[in-house]
Amino acid sequence: MSHQDRSVKRNRGIYLLPNLFTTAALFSGFYAVLAAMNGKFEQASVAIFVGMVLDGLDGRVARLTNTQTPFGAEYDSLSDMVAFGLAPSLVVYVWSLSELGKLGWLAAFIYTVGAALRLARFNTQVATSDKRYFQGLPSPAAAAVVAGGVWMGVDYGIPGEEVSYLAVLLTGGTGLLMVSNLRYHSFKEVDLRGKVPFVSIVVIAVGFSVLQVHPPLLLFLMFLMYACSGPVLTLIHLRQRRANRRSLSTSKEDER
User: What is the model's pTM?
Assistant: First the structure.
């Protein structure tokens, strides 16, 4: 077998490690749907959060091991669509939205199509967008808001039908935020391999300790605050641009 033939044969394969994490994230979304169909909404919500962790790992593993491929990027997007697009909408629909008939499935569909459009836009703009910010609410964060709301409701013993209209606002709202032009911090500028002050480790340890007090409530509030940060960050950015324009026009008038 020539060197060229061996190269072609090797290119037909896929890298195991990063795609293994992607498959696990896909399974988390699949399991979340099955759990919700069987009335196990707490397990369904936890599965979506587990999928978030696995989704964050597959890309980092690919970069660390230099195993990034177009196949892996496409597979990751399909996995995200199931785990953070379809699964959260079905979980909240079975838990609460089904009580509202057409309004319920309409809210679930708005979330699902919002996630699909968000992922498609991200894939087409990934080479030209500012790495520091996301355009629109990321689908994993939107899934965390919806799944966190379901998890919190189950944990507090709140029947889904009692908060169905609130679930409509939460589901439809996050779906619209995903396709909005609002700016969200990506936190990609954080260097995980660099040195940090010793106090940073203490803060992280305290954060984990606080999270253990009541995970459903704290996770829901944390991601809800992130979802609300988009409008605030965009408003601040627009005010800064207006201030810069005013100062520029003032300086031009002074020169005259």
Answer: 0.86
